[in-house]
Specification:
Blueprint lengths: L3 H35 L7 H4 L10 H14 L6 E2 L4 E8 L2 E6 L13 E4 L11 E2 L2 H7 L2 E4 L1 E3 L4 E10 L4 E5 L4 E6 L7 E2 L4 E6 L2 H14 L6 H13 L4 H10 L5 E5 L4 E6 L6 E2 L4 E6 L3 E9 L11 E5 L8 E13 L4 E9 L10 E7 L6 E5 L4 E2 L4 E6 L4 E13 L2 E6 L6 E5 L1 H11 L1 H7 L12 E10 L3 E6 L10 E6 L14 E8 L5 E8 L17
Antiparallel strand pairs: 1-2, 2-3, 2-4, 5-25, 6-27, 7-22, 8-17, 8-21, 9-16, 10-12, 10-15, 11-14, 12-13, 14-16, 17-20, 18-19, 18-21, 19-20, 22-26, 23-24, 24-25, 24-27, 25-26, 28-29, 28-31, 29-30, 31-32
Length: 550
């Protein structure tokens, strides 16, 4: 016995040490788990770890403990938690945040308890917002900008190719059969001024008409005015102008030769006359193009074509005229797309002081279209393009942020036009919005935004709720055995419901008990809007008779 006593004492001591070691290990694991659930693994998750009391508890473990406490005390959605003093909005699984439950229970998706979501007196505390503490906002460098109202001036830059202004052309033609005796302009692209002689023609057919006119004028007698007027009309018929007829009347001599002059100043772009040629009536001898204004044809990408319209003001510059500010106006958008470059041609009419611009030159152009109507404007960097829609992060009070889908218009100078989704005076996030958007996706805010019904007549119909058992699921309908529907004064029955456009419900199968919501569509048929599995009721502990053995 004396030898066994030290041995027993050693075994007892070892057991005590082992028990205390395990207790310290368990405490350490619990602390590590608590730290692991409350620490933020990334910048986006940091917002969850620093939420205000209105959002999800700081750790999932705390949320599960709260749910167990609610089960024990019979607390459900709509009740006030006596420990936190806040109203319970609903319960959800943080790993599958798109589903809401009215009662505390074990998650039907994961091996964990549901987590309560509390209200903090804010009407928007329904999980559609993300809260970021001021410290995290400072660390992330969150900046916001106000939604303003103003006129947007789209600016598009392009390079234009100078061409003749085809609306500033003049043709010189022969009015009668004649011969070119002398040619004053002998080459194309020669510059001419208005009234400058171009060629001299001898027209034999004019001699007879002029002699008749002069003979009638020399006749003596009364009532000769109709004869004189008839002779004057015959001179017009052979191609003589009023100026040439007056010259014949004033001089009293025949004028068989005519000098063709330039009707406008510019450049001779077409020359069809040579000395000694015989010309026929209507033959074009010269084509003159003016240079007081020119066309600049700009190739504009089709994605920017909507920013340019006829009448848009243009400023241009050219290396051929350094320091000269050229101004013009868009005359037309040519209705043809270049298949190779996917561009449209904008035809701009530019003033050409000093005839500095000639065809073939290039000019740099800036289109400036000042829109007369006012619109809502936000910084372009605040816009998030998701591929399916356009979203901005709206900044609200108490560090809350909410994704809002918007419809954008034109963009210019770092400003984007907002046609729908925002109001003047609101503030949007212009930096770190992608981190907040990522956090919104983690919390399911993006899922709720995607599933939000679009404004239509169906959204105005009253909603009805009930509990049911799934009997069958088809492609576009579901058969439910539901209980009474008090809002419609329906009794319990089995009937078909139309499924939403999203298709068959996930994680549901015949035999499951569900909560569902529906409305009566325009055809009088019930249309499901929401359906989810009912929370599993906790099993009550079985009372044991007194004195029974465990």
């Amino acid at each position: 016995m004396t030898q066994l006593k030290p041995l027993l004492m050693g075994l007892v001591g070892a057991g005590v040490l082992a028990a205390s070691g395990y207790g310290l290990y368990a405490i350490g694991m619990q602390r590590d788990m608590g730290m692991a659930t409350t620490s933020a693994p990334s910048a986006g998750a940091a917002s969850t770890a620093n939420t205000t009391p209105g959002d999800i508890p700081q750790s999932i473990a705390e949320g599960e403990d709260a749910t167990r406490r609610h089960i024990e005390h019979g607390i459900k959605a709509g009740d006030v938690d006596p420990v936190t003093g806040r109203k319970v909005l609903y319960y959800h699984d943080p790993m599958v945040p798109g589903n809401k439950f009215d009662k505390p229970a074990k998650s039907p998706f994961m091996d964990m308890m549901l987590v309560p979501v509390y209200a903090d007196g804010d009407a928007g505390s329904d999980g559609s917002k993300v809260t970021v503490s001021p410290r995290i906002q400072q660390n992330l460098g969150v900046r916001t900008a106000e939604v303003t109202e103003g006129m947007l001036s789209p600016q598009v830059s392009a390079v234009g190719n100078i061409a003749f202004n085809e609306r500033d052309q003049a043709f010189v033609q022969a009015r009668a059969t004649g011969y070119i005796e002398r040619l004053h302009v002998r080459a194309t692209l020669d510059r001419v001024s208005k009234g400058q002689p171009l060629a001299e023609l001898y027209v034999p057919d004019w001699i007879a008409a002029q002699e008749e006119f002069l003979s009638v004028r020399r006749m003596q007698g009364t009532d000769l005015a109709p004869l004189v007027d008839g002779a004057r009309q015959r001179m017009r018929q052979v191609g003589m102008s009023d100026e040439q007829i007056r010259l014949v009347e004033s001089s009293g001599k025949t004028q068989a030769r005519i000098t063709l002059t330039a009707p406008i100043g510019g450049v001779v772009v077409e020359l069809m006359a040579r000395e000694g040629m015989t010309v026929m009536p209507g033959a074009t001898l010269f084509r003159i193009n003016g240079l007081s204004s020119v066309w600049a044809n700009a190739e504009v990408p089709e994605s920017q074509a909507a920013l340019i319209r006829p009448g848009t003001k243009v400023q241009a510059s050219s290396a051929a005229a350094p320091g000269t500010n050229l101004r013009g106006t868009v005359q037309a958008i040519v209705p043809e797309v270049n298949a190779a470059t996917r561009t449209l041609k904008a035809r701009v009419e530019l003033a050409n002081p000093g005839n500095l611009l000639v065809p073939g030159m290039f000019v740099n152009m800036q289109f400036m279209d000042m829109r007369a109507e006012k619109s809502l404007l936000i910084p372009t960097e605040a816009v998030i393009q998701t591929g399916k829609r356009v979203v901005v992060m709206l900044a609200e009070d108490k560090g809350k942020f909410r994704p809002v889908e918007v419809e954008t218009g034109i963009e210019s100078n770092g400003q984007t036009e907002i046609k729908r989704g925002l109001q003047m005076g609101q503030r949007v996030v212009v930096s770190s919005q992608f981190l907040i958007d990522s956090e919104a996706s983690l919390k399911g805010v993006e899922a709720r935004l995607n599933d939000a019904p679009k404004p239509n007549a169906a959204n105005t119909a009253p909603r009805h709720e009930g509990e049911a058992k799934i009997e069958a699921i088809a492609n576009d309908s579901i058969t439910l055995s539901h209980g009474p529907i008090p809002s419609l004064k329906w009794g319990a029955m089995t009937m078909d419901f139309k499924l939403p456009a999203s298709g068959q419900p996930r994680n549901l199968e015949p035999g499951d008990k569900v909560n569902f919501e529906f409305y009566m569509d325009a055809e009088g048929l019930p249309q499901i809007t929401r359906i989810s599995a009912m929370a599993l009721e906790p099993k009550a502990a079985t009372a044991k008779p007194a004195g029974s053995k465990p």
